[in-house]
UniProtKB/TrEMBL annotation:
InterPro entries: DoxX (IPR032808). Its main location: membrane. Keywords: Membrane, Signal, Transmembrane, Transmembrane helix. Residues 1-23 form the signal peptide. It holds the Pfam family DoxX_2. PANTHER family: DOXX FAMILY MEMBRANE PROTEIN, MEMBRANE PROTEIN-RELATED. This is DoxX family protein. It is found in: Membrane. It is a multi-pass membrane protein. It comes from Streptomyces durmitorensis.
Length: 124
């Protein structure tokens, strides 16, 4: 199967995996929640996991794929501050962890572009 038809399902799988991880093992994600957000970091972690699962379902279904993929692109932009928070908080951690935190920052760009591509290729 060529990559293009699988691309939405791969994106849905990535979202589903991230959503399950947020719900099953929330502690590491809690630490990435920007402190300026109101409420408990755990609430934000669970909410983002639930959103990722909903987006995964939407991207997986052809009927909702375009809208869900556009929402996914917006979601990836919206969680960027958590990645910045992680990079700031981890600046004194061992080099591999620091590198992983910093490496997440530019990773958002291809994720946003991937979601937009899925939306653009979806049937209206």
């Amino acid at each position: 199967m060529p990559l293009a038809p699988r691309s939405p399902l791969l994106l849905a799988g990535l979202l589903a995996g991230a959503g399950v991880a947020h719900l099953a093992a929330p502690k590491p994600f809690d630490a990435t929640i920007p402190r300026v957000l109101p409420g408990s970091p755990r609430t934000w972690t669970y909410a983002s996991g639930a959103v990722e699962l909903a987006l995964a379902a939407g991207v997986a279904l052809p009927r909702t794929r375009r809208t869900a993929a556009l929402a996914t692109a917006a979601f990836f932009v919206g969680v960027f501050p958590a990645n910045v928070q992680m990079a700031v908080d981890w600046r004194r951690r061992p080099a591999p962890l620091r590198a992983a935190a910093i490496g997440r920052l530019p990773l958002q760009v291809p994720l946003v572009l991937w979601a937009r591509n899925v939306a653009g290729n979806a049937r209206s």
